[in-house]
Structure formats: structure tokens, C-alpha cells
Amino acid sequence: MNLLFLGTSAGVPTKTRNVSGVALRESKGKGWYLIDCGEGTQHQVLHTKLSFHSLKAILITHVHGDHCYGLPGILASAGMGGRKAPLTIVAPAGIKAWLEATCEATQLCLPFTLEFIDSDELPSVEFESIAVTTFRLSHRAPSYAYGFTERKVDADLNIEKLTQKGIPRGPLWGQLKQGFDIEFAGEQLKSQDFLIFKNKPRKIMIAGDNDQPDLLMDACTGAQVLVHEATYTEEMAEKAGDVGHSYGKLVAAFAESVQLPNLVLTHFSPRYQLNSNATPSIEDIRKEAQSVYSGSLYLARDFSEYTLDKAGRFAELSGE
Amino acid sequence: MNLLFLGTSAGVPTKTRNVSGVALRESKGKGWYLIDCGEGTQHQVLHTKLSFHSLKAILITHVHGDHCYGLPGILASAGMGGRKAPLTIVAPAGIKAWLEATCEATQLCLPFTLEFIDSDELPSVEFESIAVTTFRLSHRAPSYAYGFTERKVDADLNIEKLTQKGIPRGPLWGQLKQGFDIEFAGEQLKSQDFLIFKNKPRKIMIAGDNDQPDLLMDACTGAQVLVHEATYTEEMAEKAGDVGHSYGKLVAAFAESVQLPNLVLTHFSPRYQLNSNATPSIEDIRKEAQSVYSGSLYLARDFSEYTLDKAGRFAELSGE
């Protein structure tokens, strides 16, 4: 699995950072998922190798504009680019009504079907190689985190059990290895009972705006990576008041408490600059977070790319 | 008056060109008007000196997404940037309903008032230094051209007429020179009857999508500049079929027929590249247009900037 950040600014874009959008790519093939779609996300996609034809789903964390104003344009462009396959949209209910109003008002007739799934019902959605689960967060608008768990994990056949059961070497072994349940000697046999898994399934949590990271305690079980907003430093968060956002240290302290191995912070207020000598700088958020977290900490930039390998090792890919 | 192109691509953005948006700046002060607002227009504005505080009005030519999907984001950012002054939006009626639906669905509460004016009623709108008139075009959706005419033109007093009338040199002369009508010896006297205008008022026509440039014949009277779409070359326009767009030669032939001195083409299909050696290139559109037009022809690029001086001279400013 692979993460590619398309925007890391909160609220408004800056000259160097777009508003929210993250692409999660499947480990095999070209399939990808878009989590949030701020204005200009389609422009960012133009500078990557991502294709709208292989986009499996768009998941919106909440209805605020910096997380969804790019939706009409990205759908229109996918349509003009010839996409025909239905597209799943997992989003709070308001998004469905808004997109319908948009199509109506702007004469947008998409050549593909949108299949809406309401985040407010905390759905679990299974795609071919990834299962998505939904968790509620705390923000000014209903906000959600999405967990992406690998469905098929590399496994070896348990030869001892197969032999014990008397299943003959051949096509049935192949089916079991590929994850299919079989019928043998009048009995239903489950694939997972005859496999030895090499690794735990990969799991990445991607959270929307949220001022209570603790809400993700159960959600983070088994996750190798959490992507979470860190809009401010602690001092700035206090000045900003009750706006429903987290600061770096708060998120990092939570990640430490659940022994999460990898934390990626994003959604930095536009006042924070990339330059580490600037005031304030994104480095200020890093320092605070690092002070309370012993895992691997990453602060995303636009076009930052990370990979999570089969063994659960997470790393930033070097830029082009 | 000054034109700054923020996007020159039709339908979808490319790596080097955004979708439609043009800034028209007043000759004095910082006031500006935004004509069309495709997705990412606010991102383009970040790379200019334009401020959302001095934006006088947004005028939308028609409801298609590549001309209006940047509206919610630009309004939200103007609000977050502290704008308080009301903002005039001249647009087809569908835009008002769509923006209201957007504010509702995405919890967008703007700290300034939107004053909508319905283009479908072909309004004439007077701002402090510019008057805007509206003209109907031909496209798949109701589409409009907006004419921007300078309201105050430099003038000298007609001393001979003032002396003839016996008006004493002093404050009354000053009022007449500044364009105010006066009462003198029981008679209402009109400012314009005592002025000698140095130049014709400046006038720029900016048209939306349109497949019948001839419709602008009357609108172009007195205009020094027409900005018009030229989505294709003639050959490509024939292939594209009845999609409501113009090709360069069609627009240029019209401009020639009304002896328009300056024509700026824009809104090129994304397949046309900037590189003159590419196939197809925007240069192909230029060549066709140039073959039938004897005035000054310009093909806009993103961030192309043009100035129209008091004497009606139009010129491209060299890039930074």
C-alpha cells in the first residue's frame, strides 16, 4: 500500500500547499482511493501518475469546503476523460445532496454512475483488495476516519492440515491458497483454516478533522499507520479556541499511548511555512510532536509519498 | 484598464493551463472584476498581486463547471481572509441557487453579503468607475458577454462655452470638470455640455462560450478589445460537431467585419499545446485567425497581462 499526499494545507491553499486530499494506492495494480478532495485536487493529480480510470472510490471525511470543493470538477474531468465505470463515494449525507444540486445547476451529466454510501451510518465497505471501516470523530461538523485494511495477505498452505484432511494435491490446494473456500467430501472447508499467514494484514487509518484523537483508540488496533490532522502547535491551538482541531503534540501523545508505530501529520494551518527558519514553521509542529512520541513521525508535504510493505514496514519514498 | 488571464483551457485544466478566469483591473486604484471562476482560480490569484479585499464583482458567463466551480472556494477564502464588504455576483440564475445549496450543504457562512444580479435579465450595472452591460450569446447553456466601459473620461473645460454663458471662473468650473451638473442663474447645466473629451471611453468586451460571434456586432460598437473563446481550429470544430463553440477563424472573421482593433483569443481545448512545434498547437489557431484578420491578434496564456491605455492603445505587458 502506498500513500501520496495531494494537499496538506488547512482551510485555504497556499502558493506551495493545496487543501486536503490523499491518494491511497493498492499494493498491486493501479487501483487507488481518494480521501478528501479539496478544490484543485484534480490539478494536483495531473502532476502524478494516477488515472481517473483506476480510481476505486472517493471518501470524504466531512463537508467543509477545503475537504470537498474539488469534487464537482474531479467528477466532470473523469467523465470528460471517458470514465464509464461506476464510482463509489463514501461521504456524509450532505455531499450526495450537494452533488445532485451541482449536477442540476451546472448541467453536469456524468457518463458513469455514482454509488453513494452514507458515512453517518459508519459503513464497512469491501472492495476487491481492501476493506474500509468508518469511525466517528469530534469536529464542528460530523467528521469521520476511514480505516483501510488489506483483504488478501500472502500465505503458505498448511501442508500438514491438508494431508491430515486427505485433500489431494492439485486444483483444490490452489483454490484454498487463493483464498477461496471449497467443498470436499461433502464438507465446506474455509480457506483461512488451511493457510499460514506470513504477515499481519496491512492497515492504514486516515482521519478527518478531529479534536479528540483518543476516539481512535479501538480503530487503531492493528494499524501500522495513522494519518491525522495537526493544524497547529499547542500554543496556537489555545489562541484559536474551540474550532475542533488538533495540535501536533495532542495527536502524538495519543499515538504514543496506543504504541502506534507510524504517525503522519498533515492539514497544517496556512500560516505554518515549509521553511524551517520561518516563523511559524511546520518544524515547530514536528518538534512538539516528537517530544512525546517514540515511533516514526512524518510531516507530510504536497506530493510526499510513503509505502507500507507486506511486512508492515513504512517508509517515505524519496522525491523525484 | 488591464486584463490578467488566470486560465485559458477549455473544459479541463492541463499541467500548464487552468480553466476559465480573467481579471479586469480598473485603471486607477486596486479595484478588479473577475470574469468566470473555474476550479483553481483562487490558486492562480495567489500567484498575482490581486487581493480579495478589492474585488468589486464576479461575473459568470454561463453555468458550465469549467467557468464556475471555483466560486465556492474563492468566496470561502475571501471570507477567511477577512473580507467584510458586500460582493456583487452577476450570473445566470442557476448560480445563485447552487451557491445557496453549497453554503447549506457545506456549512459555509460567509462574513459578507452576496448581491446577486441575474444575467438572464441582461442587466446594466454601474460600479464607481466602470459600467457593465450584458449581451446574449449562443451556446448549449444560456451564455453571456459582458461589456466593461469606463465611466469617467479625462476632459478639458470648454472655456469658450463657459465664457459665452457667463459662468464665472471658480468652484462651478471645478464641479463641471469633475462631471457634476450644476444650477446657474436658475438654469440646470449639464457637465458634459461644457467639456471637451480627450479620448473615447475605454471599452472591453469579454464573451463566454459562443458559436455565433456575429451576435456581438452591436455590443462591439466602440469597443477597443474583444476577448472571445476559440476552442478549436476549423477542422477540429467540424469534427467536434455541434457543441456550441467557436474556432479561431470564425471569431477573427467577425472581428474583421466590425473593424475591431484588438482581439484576444482564449479557452483553447486542452489538446492544443503551448509549444509551437507540438501537434496540435495553439499556434495552429493563431495562424487560421491571422489569415482573415488585419487587427492586432493575441492568444492568451495563463498569466498573460494586457493594458488598455487612456488613448485606447492596447498592448501585452512583458512577463515577469
From TrEMBL, chains A, B:
The keyword Metal-binding applies. It catalyses: Endonucleolytic cleavage of RNA, removing extra 3' nucleotides from tRNA precursor, generating 3' termini of tRNAs. A 3'-hydroxy group is left at the tRNA terminus and a 5'-phosphoryl group is left at the trailer molecule. Its EC number is 3.1.26.11. Its cofactor is Zn(2+). One of its GO terms (molecular function) is zinc ion binding. Zn(2+) 2 binds at residues 66-67, 209, 267. This is Ribonuclease Z. It comes from Vreelandella boliviensis LC1.
